[in-house]
Amino acid sequence: MYVCLCQGVTDGQIRDAIYDGCCSYRDVRETLGVASQCGKCACLAKQVVRETLSEVQSSQAGLAYPASFVAA
Predict the structure, then answer these.
(1) Is the Cβ–Cβ distance between 46 and 25 less than 8 Å?
(2) What is the rounded CA–CA span in Å between residue 63 and residue 66?
(3) In total, how many domains does the chain have?
(4) Residue 69 domain flag
(5) Please, are residues 10 and 1 in contact by the beta-carbon 8 Å criterion?
(6) Which end of the chain is more exposed for a tag (fewer CB within 10 A), N or C?
(7) Residue 25 domain-assigned?
(8) Which domain holds residue 27?
(9) What is the mean pLDDT of residues 10-34?
C-alpha cells in the first residue's frame, strides 16, 4: 500500500528500509524521503515504522536466549 504519494513510498519499502538497518522514523525519513513534502503521510509512516520495529525487536528477543539441548 502506498504510504507517501508525494515520494511514491510503500509500506513494503519502509519495512525493507528497517530490515536494511534504519532504526527510527528519522532514519526512514532520511533514507526514503517519506513525509518530506506535504507531510500528510507522517502519521501512517510512523505507525508502519513502530509496528515493524516492534516485530524486529520481538523476533530478536527470541534469539537472545541460549538454546538448550537435551540429550536423547
Answers:
(1) yes
(2) 7
(3) 1
(4) no
(5) yes
(6) C
(7) yes
(8) 2-51
(9) 96
Choose the weakest-confidence range: 23-27, 29-33, 45-49, 54-58.
Answer: 54-58
Question: Three cell numbers at 54?
Answer: 516492534
Cell 503521510 -> residue: 41
**CATH number assigned to the domain comprising residue 15:** 1.10.10.1100
**Per-state percent for the chain, helix, strand, coil, to nearest 5:** 55, 5, 40
In a domain, 44, yes or no: yes
pLDDT confidence tier of residue 70, bands split at 50, 70 and 90 = low
pTM of the predicted model over 0.85: no
**CA-based nearest residue to 32, from 16, 43, 44:** 16
Cell of 4: 507517501
Q: What angle do CA 58, 29, 56 make, to 5 degrees?
A: 10
Q: Is residue 56 part of a domain?
A: no
